[in-house]
Write a structure and sequence with these properties.
Layout (H helix, E strand, L loop, with lengths): L7 E6 L21 H11 L2 H11 L8 E5 L2 E6 L1 H11 L8 H10 L8 E6 L3 H12 L9 H13 L4 H7 L5 H15 L6 H6 L3 H5 L1 H8 L2 H7 L2 E2 L5 E2 L4 H17 L14 H21 L44 H11 L7 H22 L16 H15 L2 H11 L8 H9 L7 H18 L3
Parallel strand pairs: 2-4
Antiparallel strand pairs: 1-4, 2-3, 5-6
């Protein structure tokens, strides 16, 4: 039982009295020493900017107070890092320089926003006591829980520190310790695949992999996956499988490749039941196992009889070619919260559109996404495209591309100018703005899957540019 009734409350000066926690499992970076790096991480990956806007618009709510603990004579925030980061940034926006203009704009929009210099906190008597409170809040049912990756990371850190499974069960009775320990161990097993390509070895230690752990959990928690690999989970969170290590490595490689490319994400796997993308993944994994079985030679005798010279020689067919992934890597595009809902909808629908089956649909969604993305990009910078680029008072795709090209040129982003030029000149017709418009308007224009995929290669680079911070 976690009892905080006897914990002390004190008020500290925000700027120098308390520090953010470099060990916070929210962080995508590891072992950050500079507080500015921690703040940047929380703004980039945890949307602390939205909290700034919330505090400016409705005030700083004090029904919940941050929790701190003394560590090496410093007062460290162990619960409420995102709130403290937002408050520190409001006091000095240059602590997160990439977001300073947006913070200043929010504060200008709410001229009566609170100007907070001191904050009341709850002081945990020890790190252990703080850990028990954090676990009760974020891995129990008291508040919206952490993502699977953060939940697993918390318990993995406890195991790495030497605590046994039984100790964790006793310390965190409100949490499903078995599930979280299993997830942590499964992640470690997938990260340890042998003979992986250099690209995949780099991927499993990247921030993008950490962000994909929620997707990974949906896969390995599914009944279909567990049956495929013969997965059995013990009472202590450990697991065993009926397939060999080599077979599991091959399956893990297929999954990691899908997450790395972006075709496997929480949008394409928003559910696993009756989901065509999940069904394809299970089919691909089944093919991997079938091929592995075939390569073992089945029940052939250990010393087969040599064939006579006049016996017909048998040939073995090449393994089946891995089918082309029919889904676009839309997960590379993260739409800022301030961008138009129509733009976000286009990305959402693109991520679940099978390009091989519906190439025209994918094409039209690309056209809409690039136009709406550019318009959103200009709008958040308070730039009106129509004032300089329009046709009879209306802003079309060609106007948006022309404006983006000129904007990029002023910023020295020559590559953007070149990509736009490739979409507006008839160099390769399948990757032009004319083709995008023709598919939308010309009743005789037909789109092939290869054309849709080729167009995406140009469109995705521009979308990545317009959604950057």
């Amino acid at each position: 039982m976690v009892d905080t009734s006897n914990w002390k409350r004190e008020t500290f000066e925000l700027r120098t009295g308390i520090r953010l926690d470099p060990r916070n499992v929210r962080l995508e970076l590891t072992d950050a020493k500079v507080e500015a790096d921690i703040m940047e991480d929380l703004f980039v990956n945890e949307d602390a900017l939205r909290l700034v806007e919330g505090i400016c618009s409705v005030g700083y709510l004090t029904h919940e107070v941050p929790v701190v603990v003394y560590r090496d004579a410093e007062c460290i925030v162990v619960e409420g890092n995102r709130r403290i980061a937002a408050l520190k940034a409001m006091q000095n926006p240059m602590l997160v320089s990439d977001f300073s203009n947006r913070i200043a704009a929010i504060q200008k929009r709410y001229p009566h926003h609170p100007k907070i210099t001191h904050v009341e906190v709850l002081i945990a008597p020890s790190q252990d006591a703080a850990d028990q409170l954090i676990a009760a809040i974020h891995t129990g049912n008291l508040r919206r829980p952490w993502t699977p990756s953060r939940q697993a990371a918390f318990f993995q850190a406890q195991i790495d520190s030497g605590r046994t499974f039984q100790e964790l069960v006793e310390r965190y009775p409100a949490s499903d310790v078995k599930k979280f320990v299993f997830r942590a161990q499964m992640v470690n097993r997938i990260k340890s695949i042998r003979n992986a390509s250099p690209e995949l070895r780099d991927f499993v230690v990247s921030t993008k992999f950490k962000k994909g752990l929620s997707t990974l959990a949906r896969i390995h928690d599914s009944k279909e996956f567990r049956e495929l690999v013969g997965l059995q989970v013990g009472d202590d969170g450990s697991f065993s499988m009926t397939i060999t290590d080599d077979e599991f490595d091959k399956i893990a490689e297929v999954i990691l490749q899908g997450i790395a490319e972006g075709s496997l994400n929480t949008r394409t796997l928003n559910k696993v039941k009756d989901n065509p993308r999940f069904a394809q993944l299970m089919s691909d994994n089944g093919s991997v196992l079938s091929h592995q079985d075939g390569s073992k030679g089945g029940d052939a005798p250990a010393n087969p009889k040599p064939k006579a010279d006049d016996e017909p020689k048998t040939t073995t067919s090449n393994p089946p070619r891995k089918p082309r992934d029919p889904y676009l890597s839309v997960s590379r595009i993260s739409a800022p919260a301030s961008y138009g809902e129509g733009f976000k909808q286009c990305l959402e629908e693109l991520s679940t559109t099978n390009v091989q089956q519906r190439p025209a649909t994918a094409f039209l969604l690309m056209r809409a996404a690039i136009e709406k993305g550019i318009k959103s990009f200009a709008e958040v910078q308070h730039i009106e495209i129509k004032s300089t680029h329009n046709h009879n008072g209306y802003v079309y795709l060609s106007n948006c591309l022309d404006w983006l090209s000129e904007y990029a040129r002023t910023k020295g982003d020559k590559w953007v100018v070149q990509v736009v030029a490739g979409m507006t000149k008839l160099v390769y017709y399948q990757v032009t703005a004319d083709k995008l418009n023709a598919v939308n308007h010309n009743h005789k224009m037909y789109v092939t899957p290869d054309e849709a995929i080729e167009m995406w290669r140009s469109v995705v680079s521009l979308l990545e540019y317009v959604v950057r911070p």
